[in-house]
Amino acid sequence: MENLNLKKLAEELNLSISTVSRALRDSHEIGEQTKQRVKALAKKLGFQPNPHASSLRKNKSKTIAVIVPEIENNFFSQVINGVEEVAQKKGYHVLIYLTHEDQGREIDILRLLRNGRVDGVMISVSNTTTSFEHLKAYKDADVPLVFFDRIYENLDVPRITTDDTEAAYKATEHLFKMGCKRVAYLSMSGNLSISSRRKRGYKRALEKYSLAENELTVECNMNDDENRKKISLFLQQNKAVDGIFAAVEKLAVNSYQVCHDLKLNIPNDIKVVSFSNLAAAALFDPPLSAIVQPAYEIGKEATTILFKIIDDKVLLPTENNVIIPSILVERKSTSRQPRQ
Amino acid sequence: MENLNLKKLAEELNLSISTVSRALRDSHEIGEQTKQRVKALAKKLGFQPNPHASSLRKNKSKTIAVIVPEIENNFFSQVINGVEEVAQKKGYHVLIYLTHEDQGREIDILRLLRNGRVDGVMISVSNTTTSFEHLKAYKDADVPLVFFDRIYENLDVPRITTDDTEAAYKATEHLFKMGCKRVAYLSMSGNLSISSRRKRGYKRALEKYSLAENELTVECNMNDDENRKKISLFLQQNKAVDGIFAAVEKLAVNSYQVCHDLKLNIPNDIKVVSFSNLAAAALFDPPLSAIVQPAYEIGKEATTILFKIIDDKVLLPTENNVIIPSILVERKSTSRQPRQ
Questions:
Q1: Mean pLDDT over the full length of chain A
Q2: Each residue of A36-54: pLDDT tens digit?
Q3: pLDDT per residue over B194-227, tens digit each?
Q4: In angstroms, rounded to a whole number, what is the distance separating the alpha carbons of residues A47 and A329?
Q5: CA-CA distance, B170 to A164, in Å (whole number)?
Q6: Edge-to-edge strands of the sheet including A289-292?
Q7: Which residues in chain A have their CB less than 8 angstroms from residue B77's CB?
Q8: Nearest CA-CA distance, residue B100 and chain A, Å
Q9: Residue B174 in contact with residue B333, Cβ under 8 Å?
Q10: Which of A126, B51, B190, B204 has the smallest count of CB within 10 Å of its CB?
């Protein structure tokens, strides 16, 4: 019932359902003028707030959910530690849901969470997600929502990310500075905005160094065996390649194995740099140069902003789009050494 | 009310509360004779089952919970993948809760879960857990419960573990076979049964090789800096040590860093073997010999058994104590090489 009323009001006033809902709840996020317009029309149309829905909002579950694609990647487990740090101080429980990079599961989980089981949701979108209706529906249901890392750009929801484009630019540039001439980019398949942002950084570095014609991308996936075959074939067919920039840690691990099999010495024959939050990357043979994402900070910041929404507090304009920079850690896998 | 009645029946009949509860629900796990004794006394005492509790059992949430100490360790993330594999086929959602090795959080989470939010719980106990009342209370509340990996031995709950003692024996023996004379054991502090099982395996190998007087244990904790200092001091004070068996991966990583700082060559000066489920252990310098636990299988098996309990199916006697063996993967960190 309430949703129908909200929809009617929203259409009539040319506002989003969520704005109407917030205006009726006197949220600080909505301007005074808008609130008055909404309330006036609600009164005129005899709008009755659904008492159940309000009680859901008041009767807090003291629980938030964080939805991530996987946890074998240290990035996400570090994000979750940051989430729990903030949640625990506020006396909240955290539910962790895994999509396993599956859009179907993501849809199921969001549907499950729309019924008031949690007070708010943080999500990093699966890489197979191609339609975004479930995210829109969730936002329209007016349950507090925050995106982190892998965002859906066309939805007006606060987002916490790192500077993927700049970090990818830095990584690629680092390879050139260490003497590489032909740098290949190993990307993960899927429809993620971070993939395209990272690729953009790679391409910008090529352009900066007037090497745009040298663009070489190998599209990989979640399957290690397939990736190794693909990378191996690629390196055998492109013997001039002397640098690899891996979009995710998994692909750096695959590359190390392939280089070992092909008896390519890292860093003498080929240099490798990767996005990676694996502490043990420093123990690799050779130690892996890595772009380390501020995972813990992303988790803390996303949760802090989610609680502001839950508590109907004003978000600062900057809090709608928080970008926390990554750091390039240079190790031996990209070091400049005389060729033997 | 129901719990009081159950308690009275249990005391009177000298049975556990959970047995009484199952007998009243006609569970297949309880023998016919016991069922009749329970039902007869229940009738005599005018026992009224709590209608709310039964409806909770029938009105399934289609959700199970898995409680783990942390997820930065690959072992637990692989267990969770196994859990989700089984749960998804059955149309169940999985809630993941982290205790961060904190008994207080573990108690809070179990209290939260006793209210019917989930149909069953799998738990790997935190290493700071010293009292087990919360686990007993949970079991007495008759919510299906399964232990995995880190179990509490004095509670009659199905448990799925690996052969920690045998695996630790194998790892220590492997070091001796590769030429080590003085093997130190790096243990994690805490009260876990797996710690004592692993230590038992280490000691048995020492005894087998008549080296019992050479027992050397370094007790470590979750703090990397402290561990490194401790291991460094230990190795400087015990220069005869030529082998390290690390109870957990984290301590192998700490050891690698210390050996690097002390300019001790692995495996020439000192050999290292560790429990580890890190795929990238093969890329370490040198590749790390590891006892790989059947994490994914443990997750699958634990979930399969949990569903049997939820569905009131008969457990095979072997399903009350499932032990899935670990494998020793030999790599260069323990290889026999002539000393330089």
A1: 89
A2: 888 888 888 776 654 334 4
A3: 888 999 999 999 999 988 888 999 999 989 999 9
A4: 58
A5: 45
A6: A216-220, A183-188, A243-246, A271-275, A289-292, A327-329
A7: 70-72, 77
A8: 9
A9: no
A10: B51
- Asked if A283 and B253 come within 8 Å (Cβ–Cβ), the reply is yes
- Locate the domains of chain A by residue range: 2-55, 61-161+295-324, 164-293+327-334
- Please indicate whether, in this complex, the C-beta atoms of B100 and A84 are within 8 angstroms of each other: yes
Instruction: State whether A97 and B97 contact (CB < 8 Å).
Output: no
Q: Which two tokens stand for residue A285?
A: 């043979």
Set of chain B residues whose Cβ sits within 8 Å of the Cβ of A100: 81, 84
Structure tokens at A304: 């802090």
The closest CB to that of B283, out of A81, A97, A285, belongs to A285
For the entire predicted model, the pTM comes to 0.81
For residue A181, the 8-state DSSP code is S
Which residues in chain B have Cβ-Cβ distances shorter than 8 Å to A88?
A: 105
> Which chain A residue has its CA at the smallest distance from B70's CA?
A77
In sequence order, what are the residues at sequence separation of 6 or more whose Cβ sits closer than 8 angstroms to the Cβ of residue A146?
A120, A121, A122, A123, A157, A158, A159, A160, A302, A305, A306, A309
- Chain B residue with the nearest C-alpha to that of A249: B280
Cα→Cα distances B260→A64, A133, B243, B255, B284, Å: 43, 53, 15, 8, 12
Does residue B95 contact residue B65 with C-beta atoms inside 8 Å?
yes
Q: Which residue of chain B is at minimal alpha-carbon distance from A72? A: B77
CATH topology of domain B2-55: 434 Repressor (Amino-terminal Domain) (1.10.260)
DSSP 8-class letter at A177: H
Nearest to A73 by CA among A99, A94, A112, A104: A99
Whether the CB-CB separation of A300 and A306 falls below 8 Å is answered with no
- Contact at 8 Å (CB) between B274 and B328? no
pLDDT of B11 higher than 90: no
Distance CA A276, CA A248 (A): 6
Side chain identity, residue B73: N
The CATH class that applies to domain B61-160+295-324 reads: alpha beta
Task: Please report how many Cα atoms fall inside a 13 Å half-sphere around the Cα of residue A68, on the Cβ side.
Answer: 25
Task: Output the CA–CA distances (angstroms, integers) from residue A194 to A151, A177, A188, A191, in the order listed.
Answer: 8, 24, 10, 9
Selected residue with higher pLDDT from B299 and B317: B299
- Structure-token pair, residue B81: 């993948």
Highest mean pLDDT pick, A263-267, A279-283, B139-143, B155-159: A263-267
Dist. CA B287–CA B281, nearest whole Å: 6
Common-topology check for domains B61-160+295-324 and B164-293+327-334 = yes
pLDDT given at position A56: 46
Q: Are B229 and B258 in contact (CB under 8 A)?
A: no
pLDDT tens digits for B93-111?
999 999 998 999 999 999 8
For domain A61-161+295-324, which architecture applies? 3-Layer(aba) Sandwich (3.40)
Mutate which: A61, A62, A63, A72, vs B, most B CBs within 10 A: A72
pLDDT average, residue stretch A8-30: 81
Q: Give the length of chain B.
A: 340
Give the number of A-B residue pairs with CB atoms closer than 8 Å: 81
Alpha-carbon distance values, A67 to A95, A96, A155, A299, B316 (Å): 8, 6, 17, 12, 36
CATH H-level, domain B164-293+327-334: superfamily = Response regulator (3.40.50.2300)
Q: Give the residue with greater pLDDT, A130 vs A277.
A: A277
Q: What is the DSSP string of B175-208?
A: HHHTT-S-EEEEEE-S--HHHHHHHHHHHHHHHH
User: Which contiguous run of DSSP H or E holds residue B101?
Assistant: none
Positive or negative CA dihedral for A105, B297, B279, B69?
Answer: positive
